[in-house]
């Protein structure tokens, strides 16, 4: 796997994990101010979610790398 394909796979995995992590821990505010949406989270904690996403993506990327390089599953050769 080359560096470009590795970066592309990392970015795709990162965004998928980010969208899975994004809704966790969100709660609407107790008192909604005028002009604010009712369902907007009171404290979205985006930096925390970015860090969790990055850590999970690194673990998944290491697993993907070893799976792709081990030859157990070949992404290039047809099954014989």
- Assign a percent range to the helix content: 55-70%
Structural class: mainly alpha
Task: Please report the number of helical segments.
Answer: 2
Morphology: rod-shaped
* Overall pLDDT level: 86
Low-confidence segments: none
Rg from C-alpha positions? 19 Å
Q: Please report which band the strand proportion falls in: under 5%, 5-15%, 15-25%, 25-35%, 35-45% or over 45%.
A: under 5%
What composes the largest sheet? none
CA(first)-CA(last) distance: 22 Å
Compute the number of strand runs.
Answer: 0
Structure report:
By secondary structure, the protein is mostly helical. It has a domain at 1-22 and 43-74. It has helices spanning 3-21, 46-70. Helix 1 (3-21) crosses helix 2. It is rod-shaped and about 65 Å long. It starts with a helix and ends in a 10-residue tail after the last helix. The mean pLDDT is 86.
Secondary-structure map with pairings?
Elements: H1 3-21, H2 46-70
Helix pairs in contact: 1-2
Protein traits:
mainly alpha; 2 helices; single chain; 55% helix; 80 residues
What would a concise description of this structure say?
The chain is built from two helices and no strands. The chain has 80 residues and is mainly alpha-helical. It has a domain at 1-22 and 43-74.
């Amino acid at each position: 796997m080359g560096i470009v394909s590795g970066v592309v796979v990392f970015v795709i995995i990162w965004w998928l994990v980010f969208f899975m992590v994004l809704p966790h821990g969100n709660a609407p505010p107790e008192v909604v101010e005028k002009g604010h949406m009712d369902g907007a989270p009171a404290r979205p904690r985006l930096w925390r979610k970015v860090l969790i996403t990055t850590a999970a993506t690194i673990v998944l990327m290491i697993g993907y790398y070893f799976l792709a390089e081990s030859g157990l599953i070949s992404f290039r050769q047809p099954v014989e």
